[in-house]
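Case study.
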Amino acid sequence: MTSADTTLAYTATEMMTVVSARALTSADVCFVGIGLPSAACNLARLTHAPDITLIYESGTIATRPSVLPLSIGDGELCDTALTTVSVPEMFRYWLQGGRITVGFLPGAQIDRFANLNTTVIGPYDRPITRLPGSGGAPEIMTHCGEIFVTMPQSRRSFVDKLDFVTTFGHGQGGDHRARLGIRTKGPTRLITDLCVFEPDPETKEMTVTSIHPGIDRDQIRDATGWPVRFAERVAETAPPTDVELETLRDLHARTRRAHAADT
Amino acid sequence: MAQFMSLGDAVAALVRDGDTVAVEGFTHLIPHAAAHEVIRQGRRDLTLVRMTPDIVYDQMIGMGCAAKLVFSWGGNPGVGSLHRFRDAVQNGWPRPLAIEEHAHAAMANAYAAGAAGLPFAMFRGYLGVDLPAVNPNIRRVTCPFTGEALAAVPALRPDVAIVHALKADRAGNVLIEGILGVQKEVVLAASRALVTVEEIVDDLGPRSPNAVVLPGWTIAAIALVPGGAHPSYAHGYYRRDNAFYLGWDDIARDRASFTAWMKTNVLEAGPDAFAAHRRRLAVAA
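After joint prediction, the assembly is written out as follows.
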């Protein structure tokens, strides 16, 4: 990508979505989380990864939605899928069976080892804020070949200690996954609106490897609830190209029209 | 053999105070009209089971039907929180709600185990997470062949399963197409099944030999309720009302606006109100 490919201004969320999309390839079989991951996965499919297999936990396999679904089970996903299986089959044969190369999850609370909390803020028995809970995430995180997580970065969500471990990323780091008998890679990329993190090869602590244009290290430190580490060599993320931005904006515009049509 | 009944008679015959009731539908085919009927008939102390207690359980919990909830993801999909569910868990309104919390893989396997007549479900899961520490129904079993420790949860065997489906023939055989969720498993796992359908036909029509058909003798009661899944949807009949899901956030945020909405649209309405939604959101033939 050269600077000539980028002439349009873009938002931080667009940057995050585009970088997330670039992480995927046509060879991937991808278990898609709702929200930001869904936008990123479909942007990948509409740009550089036309043959990617997208799977949603509602059982839709190789779906090609023309608009983004609001839920993981919108009719659009089934109408455009190669096949649709039951939810027990999805979790048993396809996910647990090891058929999925990458899982793309949204975050809630995250720690330095990319463990996730989507259960409670505060004590479990007397929560300050009750969150939705586990959904498919715990088993997506252990059964997919690797995991990408995408979420906006702030001190509120990037915390030193989770209130509850809903989903096990790298646990306490090091070989913690292997010690639990987990054979998959776990979180290999964490993509935010400021930068990209990857696990340190030894400690598995999520470490900044690429910083988005116009962002400095202090902004990243200010938005992270632990002493953030930077890799020895940190790249500058290539900005979104006009093609990426226009494709993403068209997708969002189609989606807004479709979801508002019934009011 | 399935009995054809009005929705009111079917709920009166099958759902009792204190029952364990699974209202299922994974985004698709959620039996909202039947849930409204349970609310109107004032059922109490139910243990509600559902993988994704979305708007349908927000309404039942907010109206005080439930003593306990067994679930794996409690949110308004793509929108945000379930405010009535949160109010019940955080503040005990309108009454305290006990919870038994799982992950999707556990619930899906537990329904399949219930359908298969097994006492528990086994799968590879719950590794490294905190849920087993707060849910004593999550345990481990050791594989007798490899020694691997696997997750185990009790089978789900609800007293009553309530699902929506596309159509029934006059013998009470029921066709389900599109996103299947756990509809087949929950019906076969339950002691009694209530199915609402979009239409009743002489013949289920052209279909694959592998189409999901629940034979009439697996179902206790069938009620004809066109549009009965709204704001969920019925494949080939009408679309998901995504605008309603977005709008629910405001309605449910506040106890007074929720109560007023339920009075107008549930307590003082009936299953016939659902047909208008089906017309408005109809899929072009």
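Observations recorded in class. Residues 62 and 82 of chain A are 5 Å apart (CA to CA). Residues 242-260 of chain A form the longest helix (19 residues). We will return to this complex in the next lecture.
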